[in-house]
Specification:
about 50% helix; about 400 residues; 6-stranded parallel β-sheet; Rossmann fold; alpha/beta; Dehydroquinate synthase-like, alpha domain; 2 domains
């Protein structure tokens, strides 16, 4: 095939999606349809305390499917957590995995599936299309509105030996079924609503300006941005209002479909570095970084950033071209501050001496490959310094 034609091709991958209030209650039916005889339910302590994992267990019991729960999952899931989950999966004779939770349980569940299907340690599969064999069927039930692991071909796992987050990008980790039930998000505390909502906005922004974007991903990304702008602050302030929760879950879903197929960029490369080396919260890191990366990238993708500004409701064309990047960055900063994310790196116990190492890690992250502007470690370190204090 001619190389120019090849570079212009795009694909759009998605799981089967069941969306709406009550979707969680279909877990048993879908597990039965997939032929499950014993299920590994992957979750975390917070989701267990909220009762969502128990509700999934009850659905499995109603379908007469036995299950075992693995909940030893921490934020920024670790390689040894994946290995422990895979060992339990094998020991219990499971043949299907259900993830219930936010990005951490879902990414851990993907890793467990990869190890179960390939019998190698999880860090072996770092990179793009490095998973040779499919794992067991995956049913994912997200309980946050932002990470979108329920629809993506990304799994992000912390390699604890190297203190870096590795990206496993493969169609083998796309869930078979996503049961997207916005009701599950009502138990999120305000700070998690803010962080995951800003994560969704970052997904949409980075996918839209990605060098691998397409009309399908662009359509989903712009719609996601509009939904975030109309609903995040309201969901943050009115956590029990299902209209806002529903709209934020849809924003997350659309952003996930977009970035899963267009990939991401410098914001996520830098956030992955912070999470892997220092175990910092992913959504909060993204929120701090986005406006600074907009300023850095704007010269390489100004027209697309202007379109994102329009989706945010900013009258970008009322300003001189030289001011537009700043207007957009200020709009992002305003949203971030209105949902209570005002920290800097110094507030998260990051030291200046950490920054060169973090920049080096970010420079090697695969998300950087589709960023609209190239960035060397020195450029990345300057952006870290801009959010330091």
């Amino acid at each position: 095939m001619d190389s120019e034609i090849f570079l212009n091709l795009r694909k759009f991958l998605t799981p089967e999606i069941v969306y709406g209030e009550g979707a969680l209650q279909l877990a048993g039916r879908h597990a039965l349809n997939l032929g499950a005889t014993k299920v590994l339910v992957v979750t975390d302590p917070g989701v267990q305390d909220a009762g969502w994992a128990l509700k999934v267990g009850a659905c499995l019991e109603d379908s007469n499917i036995p299950y075992i729960t693995f909940s030893d999952v921490t934020p920024n899931p670790k390689d040894y957590e994946v290995e422990a989950g895979a060992a339990l999966y094998r020991k219990e004779g499971c043949d299907l995995i259900i993830a219930v939770g936010g990005g951490s349980p879902m990414d851990c569940a993907k890793g467990i599936g990869v190890v179960a299907g390939n019998a190698e340690s999880i860090c072996t599969f770092e990179g793009v299309d490095e998973v040779p064999n499919p794992g067991p069927p995956l049913i994912f039930i997200p309980t946050t509105a932002g990470t979108s692991a329920d629809v993506s071909q990304f799994a992000i796992i912390t390699d604890t030996a190297r203190q870096v987050k590795i990206a496993i990008v493969s169609k083998m980790v796309i869930p078979d079924i996503a049961l997207v039930d916005p009701t599950t998000t009502v138990t999120m505390p305000p700070e998690l609503t803010a962080e995951t909502g800003m994560d969704a906005l970052c997904h949409a922004f980075e996918a839209y300006v990605s060098t691998a974007s397409s009309p399908l991903t662009d359509m989903a990304a712009l719609s996601s941005v509009r939904l975030v702008m109309d609903n995040l602050i309201k969901a943050f302030r009115n956590p029990e209002d299902m209209v806002f929760r529903d709209n934020m879950m849809m924003a997350s879903l659309k952003a996930g479909l977009s970035f899963s197929n267009a990939s991401l960029g410098l914001v996520h490369a830098m956030a992955h570095s912070l999470g892997g080396a220092l175990d910092l919260p992913h959504g909060e890191c993204n929120a701090m970084l986005l406006e600074k990366v907009v300023l850095y990238n704007y010269s390489a993708a100004g027209e697309k950033y202007d379109q994102l500004a329009n989706a945010m409701g900013l009258d970008i064309h009322a300003h001189e071209p030289s001011r537009r990047a700043s207007i957009l960055a200020e709009g992002v900063a305003s949203l971030r501050k209105q949902v209570g994310i005002t920290q800097h790196l110094v507030d998260l116990n990051v030291s200046l001496s950490d920054l060169p190492r973090l920049a080096g890690y970010a420079h090697k992250d695969p998300c950087l490959a589709t960023n609209p502007r190239t960035a060397d470690p020195e450029d990345i370190e300057k952006i870290y310094k801009a959010i330091y204090e």
